[in-house]
Amino acid sequence: MKLRMAAMKKNAFTLVELIVALFILSAILAATFATFITLSKSFKSETKLTETQIEDVLGLNILRYDLEMAGYGLPWTLPGAPSPAISEAASDGTYTVNPNTFNDAAPNAPRAVIISNNAGDGGSDVLVIKSLVATTGNTSSTNSLTKKYTVRYKVAGVGTTQTWNDTTRDFQNGDKVIVLNTGTSPPVSRTLQQQAGCNWYTTWPGSAACFDPGSATDVNLIYGLSTTTPRMPYNRVDYFLKRPASFSSKCHQSSYTLYRGVINQSDGKRTEQPIMDCVLDFQAALGLNIAGALTWVSASGAVGSATDLTTAANVRSYLREVKVFILLQDGQFDKDFTYASSSVVIGDSNITLRNYDLTALTNYQNYKWKVVTLDAKTVNLN
Q1: Which residues, including other chains, have CB under 8 Å from residue 97's CB and lie 6 or more apart?
Q2: Burial class (CB in 10 A: 0-12, 13-18, 19+), 97
Q3: Is 165 in the same domain as 119?
């Protein structure tokens, strides 16, 4: 019995050995937990960073397309007494800048691009783009319709319409279309045609009289517009900042969401599409061809000035390029990160639009801030 007890004592651990073992185990667990916390924070940060980058790419591609298509299918001249009356965006005082501020009232032709300089939320810009394809960004029938077109001309005095024998390109019964007359001689024109007894829009297939050119030498362009009764002979999309009621907790609470608002043909209200989250500022600059040189401005000049963009004709004549600068959060809050500057310059070597002061933002130094730049040529104005 004594020999058995002695053997058990010899094989057992002493209290000191147990304490040392527990200490070593605690150190290993603490190191493992610290590593886990670091990796978890890194994962969250990288996840938000990836989300932001994906949003950037998708949002910028949509914006680029809208800018490059600005002016597509726009009439250059409207009828003196359009029937029915043409209206654009409805009044809506819930926005910092009322959407109807950017309306072009008949008989004024629509301007392809308009900027409200520093008048939006947080001193941001509002960018308005008008074209036939400035519609909801999906594959709906209305969106597909705005990409359809054909021509109408006369052969031996008889009106003839070009058909493509393709359901994705040919108009369907009930489609609302507009007719633009290109004129009989240079310079080229785009007059919204409204023949006697016709509206300024026509429901396909309509009456031949509404489509026929006025002269044997004219060629009329027929564009798809809407599947519903239209209020304006073009479409329009507005880009603006707004803070939604339900705001992402990953974004700095002083930031906004960049929206793409399509003006509905039915009621003139905006259909909002969120494009980019965690945006601090949205600024745009216009590149104008002035006497053969590209001049950059932040908004239209005074009426009659060299940079006057208050008419559709001047926009077509001068505007060549649009730059957009978006100041946004890159990643999420990081208590271990310190942003190096207290302000951000928004612009480039051609133009400075704003020097954004970050110090008014709580914990601004714990966020990464970046400026995303988009440069688009306006290739569809003429």
Answers
A1: 116, 119, 120, 126, 240
A2: middle
A3: no
Cis peptide leading into 213, omega within 30 of 0? no
Backbone angles phi, psi at 288, to 5 degrees: -110, 140
Structural domain count, the chain: 2
**Structural domain span for residue 358:** 49-76+110-134+237-377
The rounded distance, in Å, linking the Cα atoms of 269 and 74 is: 20
Q: Where are the alpha helices (DSSP H) in the chain?
A: 2-11, 15-68, 141-145, 208-211, 312-318
Q: Is 123 helix (H, G, I), strand (E, B) or coil?
A: helix
Question: Within this chain, do residues 186 and 171 fall inside the same structural domain, yes or no?
Answer: yes
pLDDT at 50: 46
Q: Which of 376, 236, 353, 352 is nearest to 283 (CA)?
A: 353
Tokens of 61: 């591609």
Taking the C-alpha atoms of residue 241 and residue 272, their distance in angstroms, rounded to an integer, is: 11
> SS3 for 132?
coil
Q: How does DSSP assign 147-202, residue by residue?
A: T-EEEEEEETTEEEE---S-TTTS--TT-EEEEEE--SSSSP--EE---TT--SEE
Instruction: Give me 199's structure tokens.
Output: 């509206």
Beta strands 319-329 and 191-192, pairing class: unpaired
CA distance linking residue 171 with residue 254, whole number of Å: 47
Other beta carbons within 10 Å of 38: 11
Q: Which two tokens stand for residue 192?
A: 């919204």
Per-residue pLDDT tens for 289-315?
999 999 999 999 999 999 999 999 999
Q: Which of 38, 127, 40 is nearest to 322 (CA)?
A: 127
Q: Low-confidence residues of the chain, pLDDT below 70? A: 1-13, 33-56, 137-143, 184-187
Q: What is the pLDDT of residue 13?
A: 66
Q: pLDDT (tens digit, 9 = 90+) per residue, 132-147?
A: 999 875 534 455 899 8
Q: What are phi and psi of 280, to 5 degrees?
A: -90, -40
Do 146 and 247 fall into the same domain?
no
Query: Given this model, what pLDDT does residue 98 score?
Result: 97
